[in-house]
Amino acid sequence: KEKHKILHRLLQNSSSPVDL
Amino acid sequence: SNGDTSPPDSDIEHLSENICKSHLETCQYLREELQPSNWQTVLQTDLDTYQKKSQEDMWQLCAIKVTEAVQYVVEFAKRIDGFMELCQNDQIVLLKAGSLEVVFVRMCRAYNSQNNTVYFDSKFAGPEVFKALGCDDLISSVFEFAKSLNSLQLTEDEIGLFSAYVLMSADRCWLQEKTRVEKLQQKIKLALQHLLQKDQRDEGILTKLVCKVSTVRMLCRRHMEKLSAFRALYPEMVHTRFPPLYKELFGS
Q1: Over chain B, what is the mean pLDDT?
Q2: What is the DSSP letter of B172?
Q3: Region A14-19: what's the mean pLDDT?
Q4: What's the ipTM?
Q5: Which of B9, B32, B96, B105 is 20 to 30 A (C-alpha) from B219?
Q6: Who's near B64: CB < 8 A, 6+ residues apart?
Q7: In which element (H, E) is residue B226 found?
C-alpha cells in the first residue's frame, strides 16, 4: 500500500477532473 | 434458457452509455478546444527554447505533462461501471499497466494530421520539439501511432469505448481476479462492436483496433526502457524532481 499511496489516494478520492 | 451466456443487450447498452459519458467527463481537453485553429504551432523561437533545454529539464517537463494526463485517466477508470468493484490490487495493476496506454490512445484526438503536430504545453508541437529528450525513435513511433489512430477518424464514443477496452486488459500480470476483469473486458468489447455496427463502420475496423493494442503496449514498454536508461544516467534527478505519481506508476 505504501508503494502506491498516491494511486490509493486518487482511487479513494471523490475528486472530479475539475479538482485535478 | 436457450443456453446463451452472453449478457443481455440492455446491460451492454447501459455499459456503453456509462463509458461514453465517463470518457467525455474526463477527457482533459474538449474536442472543440483542440481545433488546430484555436492554437498556434510551436514557433521557431519556442522550438529553439525546447531544443536548448537540458535533457533533464525536458524529461521533467514531459513527466509532468504525462502525469497530468494520467490523472484524468484514473478518473475515467473510476467512473467505469465495475472498475471500483474490483479488488484494490487489481485496480492498481490495471492503472499501472494501462494508464499511459490510454494517454497514447487519447493523443489521437490532439493530433493534427495537416502538419504532424500534437497538442503539448498549450501549442501544437511536432516531433522536433522533443529532441532534447534523446529518444527520437520513441517519439517518432508515438507520432506514427497518433497519426495512424487519427486516420481512423473515430468518434468520441468510439475512442471512449476503445480506451476502456485497452484499460481493462485481463492479461496483465499480478491480477488477483482475472476472471472478473475478463468478463468486464468482454462486455466492453461487445459494446464497442455494437457501437461500430451502429455507426456503420467498415467491417474489419474492430480487428484493426484490436491490433493497435499490441502497438500501444510496445510504446509503453519502450517508454519504460528509455526511463530506465535515463534514470541510470540521472538517478537523483528522477528521485527529486519527477512527480511522485509518475514514479509510482513507472518506477518499478
Answers
A1: 94
A2: -
A3: 54
A4: 0.87
A5: B32
A6: B243, B246
A7: helix B205-233
Say if the Cβ atoms of A6 and B245 lie within 8 Å. yes
The shortest C-alpha distance from B163 to chain A (Å) reads 17
CB atoms A11 and B74 under 8 Å:
yes
Nearest CA in chain B to A3: B248
Determine, for residues A20 and B75 on separate chains, whether the beta-carbon distance falls below 8 Å. Answer: yes
Q: Which residues of A touch B93 (CB under 8 A)?
A: none
Is B61 within 8 Å of B121 (Cβ atoms)?
yes
Q: Which of B36-40, B140-144, B224-228 is predicted least confidently?
A: B36-40
A7–B25 CB contact, under 8 Å:
no
Q: What cell does B209 get?
A: 483496433
Q: Does residue B24 belong to the interface with chain A, where contact is any CB pair within 8 Å?
A: no
Place A19 in a pLDDT band, splitting at 50, 70 and 90: very low
Summarize pLDDT for B61-83 with one digit per residue, the tens: 999 999 999 999 999 999 999 99
CA distance B78 to B95: 10
**pLDDT (average), residues B82-86:** 97
B53/B190 Cα distance (integer angstroms):
46
Residues B206, B192: contact at Cβ < 8 Å? yes
Which residues of chain A have a CB within 8 Å of the CB of B249? 7
